[in-house]
């Protein structure tokens, strides 16, 4: 892991993510890109009436000073930090900046969401999780010394998950963490017998090219199964693939990866399929 990006809005939630990102960067001798996005829009940046250009410059300079002050942290000692300020608050820019700098991991803070708020508003972190081709680590609480030793990876044993599994293994290896694979068996149309699951595991291992130890966990739905298995396994982190569905597809079908990232108390790493 050579480079990490963490978006900052100066909130306590983003600072929790920032401290975790700094810890990961230090342990991996990685560059930490710290991204702050202003609330300016194109009209404010170009208008000659109502909002003067010098006011825009003032806001940008103010943001630069605030970011520099924010970066004055003792835990950044020995960390290579690259501050970046973008003029617009467009969450697609996070992925763009990450790709431009060959970033290996995006770290974001989140307090999750539920109910009507989740349905109609969602969260900024959820937008990034849904759209990013780069793994996203979602941090829910303060973690002074982030050092996970057990990582659960939920897998439906389909070929589209192989690349996500490879990236999950790479993330686990970077922490020297044990990677535990789990298949969640649910009732209804998705239920598989023991023989069917064993056959699917064999077929999946044949595709991967080597044998894998995969736990089978029974629960009423996949999200609940992943969270319960993670808790029972004393996991420090959960890894999940996500399809990144949008629009009506997301409304009707949802995305298990996004739901787990929203509702888990543990840190969650998402890998877009």
UniProtKB/TrEMBL annotation:
Source organism, top-level taxon: Bacteria
Gene3D superfamilies for this protein: HUPs
Signal peptide (UniProt feature, chain positions): none
Pfam families associated with the record: Usp (PF00582)
Family as reported in the entry's similarity comment: Belongs to the universal stress protein A family.
Record's protein name: Universal stress protein UspA
